[in-house]
Design brief:
about 450 residues; mainly beta; Complement Module, domain 1; 6 domains
């Protein structure tokens, strides 16, 4: 309130001097033309307003008054807005409010991009905007799938990650069937190794589990596996089968009084089986047969027939040719039939007859001197020309007992001047004349003579 004071001067008169004085400092007059405070004026201050907000006022005059002198107003912003300025203002005597305020729209900071993913937001980065995260193909969101801009201007939750969960892709070659080569039980199988792809990794190491390509596979089925891992250790695998077929002929039966020796596995495609006859028998027919691709044996089966020895031949070569590569010869010579060494040896030879046959040995006996000299193979008598040829060819004496062992090629292998027990004779034959295959067969038939 403004007061204006007016000085009223008083006049004083001094008698001695004739001076008159006026006193103007004692009386005051109050003027009444200044402004008056009126608490009842409803519009003392302008009516407050707040864009995107709300004003709540409390007046001394009651709820109906919003801008009278002394009114106090509380300022608040709508959701998504932040109050800038005074949160509370008062209507002053100067007809002004004690401060100003306004509502600013709130925003969250820009979300960073996530590797191998993206996001879309409903209202950008404003309050209440929801941003949904998605990942590229082959990746999956870890943790939450969305974030919301909250009222405080911060995002809810944490930033998600895109993890590689898609395993690599690998495709194996088709399974393979291959026929074994002739005479073999295996086949070489080839294929191109598979390639793997992955949504995340450009290069992958493919691991082979099992036998590799361009190698020989044995008969039957073999499982080949490939596996691959990406950098996130996701695994993929594939497999296929390599089957090797060995075409086989029916089992070839051995001939009566004989046996077979076969190459490879005996009856597989390309295998060859040779016919052999036991002692005292010879082969009639083909010497061998081959298993063909159509699973049939070539040729007709051979048979073993009793060996026919022509004893009436005129030359020693004609005699020996009958035994060439078929039989071994044991030539036993004595001065006469009464010679004790001959008799002892003859008894032992007769007892060892079965063992000699197993070892493919034929005994020739030469006895006496011309003109009564005889030679025989069992009951068959030899001609005098054949006897003389044997004695001259192998220098066999007529004057004392001796025994000569010839191999299948007619070579002189050993001479004995004393009778030999069957065990000693067989030991020598087994050690020096028999082939490995003959030894095996001998072991199989050793009990045959017991």
């Amino acid at each position: 309130m403004l007061l204006r004071f007016v000085a009223v001067f008083s006049l004083y008169v001094t008698a001695g001097s004739g001076t008159i004085e006026y006193d103007s400092y004692n009386d005051f007059v109050e003027e009444d033309d200044g402004p008056q405070l009126d608490y009842k004026d409803p519009h003392w201050c302008h009516s407050p307003g707040l864009t995107n907000g709300e004003v709540t006022c409390h007046s001394p005059q009651g709820r109906a008054y919003r801008s009278t002198l002394g009114t106090r107003c509380e300022m608040s912003c709508d959701r998504g807005y932040r109050l800038i300025g005074k949160g509370s203002i008062t209507c002053l005597p100067s007809r002004r409010w004690s401060g100003t305020s306004f509502c600013r729209k709130m925003r969250c900071h820009v979300l960073p991009l996530i590797p191998h993913g993206r996001y879309t937001c409903s209202h950008g980065f404003m309050v209440d905007s929801r941003c949904d995260f998605t990942c590229d193909a082959g990746y999956r969101i870890e943790e939450q799938h969305s974030r919301t801009c909250e009222r405080r201007g911060s995002w809810s939750g944490g930033q998600p990650n895109c993890e590689d969960t898609d395993p690599p892709k690998i495709k194996c070659p088709p399974s393979r069937l291959k026929v074994a080569e002739p005479g073999k039980l295996t086949a070489m199988v080839t294929w191109d190794p598979p390639k793997a792809t992955d949504t995340a990794d450009k290069s992958l190491d493919v691991i082979l589990v099992g036998q590799g390509p361009r190698t020989d596979f044995k008969e039957g089925a073999s499982i080949i596996r490939y596996k691959v891992y990406d950098q996130a250790r996701n695994r993929a695998a594939c497999k296929f089968i390599v089957r090797v077929e060995v075409r086989r002929c029916p089992t070839l039966p051995p001939p009566l009084q004989g046996f077979l020796t076969c190459s490879s596995d005996g009856n597989n495609y390309g295998a060859t089986c040779e016919y052999h006859c036991e002692g005292g028998y010879e082969r009639r027919g083909v010497s061998s047969r081959v298993c063909l691709f159509d699973r049939n044996w070539a040729g007709e089966p051979a048979e073993c027939v009793p060996m026919e020895i022509k004893s009436d031949v005129k030359t020693v070569s004609a005699l020996l040719e009958q035994f060439y590569e078929k039989r071994r010869l044991l030539i036993m010579s004595g001065p006469n039939i009464t010679d004790p060494d001959y008799q002892l040896q003859n008894i032992m030879i007769q007892k060892a007859d079965c063992g000699l046959d197993l070892r493919r040995v034929t005994v020739i006996e030469l006895l006496g001197s011309p003109p009564r000299e005889t030679g025989r193979i069992k009951e068959s008598l030899l001609s005098s020309e054949a006897i003389e040829g044997l004695r001259l060819s192998f220098r066999i004496s007529r004057s004392y007992f001796s025994m000569l062992l010839l191999d299948e090629l007619g070579m002189d292998r050993e001479r004995f001047i004393y009778p030999m027990a069957s065990d000693e004779l067989f030991s020598y034959i087994d050690s020096f004349l028999l082939e490995e295959e003959e030894r095996e067969r001998l072991e199989l038939h050793r009990d045959f003579c017991d």
